[in-house]
Amino acid sequence: MKNMDIRKYSDDFFTIGDIAILQRTTGNDGYDFNFRNCFECRSVVSEVDEPVLLHIGAIEDYAGVEATIEEMGMHLLIHEAEHIRCSTIEKWYPTIKERTPYTQIYDELPPLENVTDDFSFPFFVKGNRQTNHHKKSQCIIENADQYYTLRNEWGNDKILNWQKVAIREYVPLKVLDSTSFPDSVPISYEFRFFYFEGRCMAYGPYWNIGPQYSLSEGELPEVLELTDWAAHRLGVSFPAIDVAKTVEGDWIIIEVNDAQESGFVGVNPLKLWNCTIDAMQERNWIAVEDLFDEGTVIMGGNPLPDKTVEEMWYTAKNYKSIQELVDAYVGAHNKYGFIEDEIYDYEEGTEEYEQTKGIIDAWAEVEDYLQEKVVSCAKEEGLLAPRQKNSGLIKQMEEFMAQYGYRDGRGWWVRLDSENNM
Q1: What crossing angle do the helices spanning 80-87 and 62-71 adopt, rounded to 10°?
Q2: 125 lies in which domain range?
Q3: Own/partner pairs, 327-333, CB within 8 angstroms, 24+ separation
Q4: Domain boundary residue among 170, 196, 225?
Q5: If DSSP codes are grouped into helix, strand and coil, which group holds residue 275?
Q6: For residue 204, which of 133, 246, 263, 260 has the smallest C-alpha distance?
Q7: Is 295 left (phi over 0), alpha (psi -120 to 50) or beta?
């Protein structure tokens, strides 16, 4: 959106050292923070070189805000593609799906029979970006009647109607209070962690209603192992990562959000912003070996630049050996992972957007087909490992894929003898 008046979106603009903050008071005590009372702030009266952090609440038109900032000769700390990557479940789920409940994304609430192909009651429903204030009747669906009611409500709900739909496996959590707030999902043993460039800035209880609770020192190392892993896999600068303990005692990821929009809930806000502002003063490009786990591969170019999806389908239907099947699966998997972000180069609804979406969906379809074939082969050879706690299909397939010359490059399948980035 051009010529947007930035004053519509903010009531203060200032710098703190090497970071600029565009601020708006929202009236939400769990989000608003008076930076001027805690830091030495200098008002911005013209363009600045420092990257701009947004603290203006939920951002309806991120692209418009970014365009306006750039027209003013400045740049955002978090670009739109990065914002989308950590604020929509359809983008963050594939990156960390091994350690979060199984999820399917739909453009709209599908017929119940389509849902029950993949899920059994109860299941969890949310918008691609958010729930409607954790309203239980719109989240935890226990039977067909509740689902039909939700379908009737969804289109008229101001928070839900504009969002895609995420349907998730319902994983019972350790509950702290299930009765005091009957219209809400149960108060669970859940925590929010804020990260900046791969480092934890602060954490605290997710729920600021119900009984007081805190994370024990004995549990912290296990939880940090999970949130560190998630932050590294997400590869975004400033995420808020919500985790919870299941009734079985496992830790799982519940949600990821852009920390610019996230309330501090039970996190100490002064500690959060002290640590984050300090980290922002030290901001540099992070060496890949510090940001990613050992063995991570960065895909530097299109893995199949000259291969069409039609040619891949031919290979998928006519392979003559397991090695050919595995090679095709690896190509489709890496190709889809490489191109899936391209859709955000175009405005939704445009011809370019629809064409790009069609290409991405076509590669996803052939990848799913080949993956099913490969998994069947792994089972037949007795090389599909049992599902491990907090891990997914890639971990299960490691031994089988190694037999055919591939290893996990943290999201990409790469040749075992590969020493260079792809």
Answers
A1: 160
A2: 102-170
A3: 327/404, 328/370, 329/367, 329/370, 329/371, 329/373, 329/374, 329/413, 330/406, 330/413, 331/303, 331/304, 331/307, 332/363, 332/366, 332/367, 332/370, 333/367, 333/370, 333/371, 333/412, 333/413
A4: 170
A5: helix
A6: 263
A7: left
Instruction: Give the residue from 374, 11, 413, 80 showing the smallest Cα distance to 91.
Output: 80
- Would you say residue 119 lies in a domain? yes
Residues 204 and 158 in one domain: no
Q: How far apart are CA 83 and CA 79, in angstroms?
A: 6
Token output for 222? 């296990």
Q: Which residues of the chain have pLDDT under 70?
A: 1-5, 131-133, 159-160, 283-302, 344, 388-392, 410, 417-422
DSSP secondary structure letter of residue 266:
T
Q: Tell me if 179 is assigned to some domain.
A: no
**pTM, entire model:** 0.68
Q: Which value, in Å, is the radius of gyration of the alpha carbons in the chain?
A: 23
What distance in Å separates the CA atoms of residue 143 and residue 123, rounded to the nearest whole number?
A: 9
Q: Which residues pair with 26 in a beta bridge?
A: none
The enclosing H or E element of 201 equals strand 199-205
Contact 336, 419 (CB under 8 A): no
Contact of 167 with 125, CB cutoff 8 Å: yes
What is the pLDDT at residue 392? 65
Pairing of strands 12-16, 251-258: unpaired
State residue 281's pLDDT score: 87
Question: Is 95 within the bounds of a domain?
Answer: no
User: Is-contact 363 332, C-beta < 8 A?
Assistant: yes
Residues 152 and 194 in one domain: no
The single-letter DSSP state of residue 111 is P
* Number of domains composing the chain: 4
**Shared domain check, 144 and 115:** yes
Report whether 190 contacts 206 (CB < 8 A): yes
Q: Do residues 169 and 102 lie in contact, with contact meaning Cβ atoms separated by under 8 Å? A: yes
Pick from 184, 138, 144: nearest CA to 160: 138
Q: Give the number of other Cβ atoms within 10 Å of residue 45's Cβ.
A: 8
Do you find a cis peptide bond into 122, omega within 30 degrees of 0? yes
- Per-residue buried b or exposed e for 155-174, using 16+ beta carbons within 10 Å of the residue's own CB: eeeeebeebebbbbebbebe
Please indicate, yes or no, whether residues 335 and 361 belong to a single structural domain of this protein: yes
Q: Which long-range contacts (CB under 8 A, 24 or more apart) does 317-321 make?
A: none
Give the residue ranges of DSSP H helices in 55-208. Answer: 62-71, 80-87, 89-96, 112-115, 144-154
Cα separation, 330 vs 325, in Å, equals: 9
How high is the pLDDT of residue 304?
76
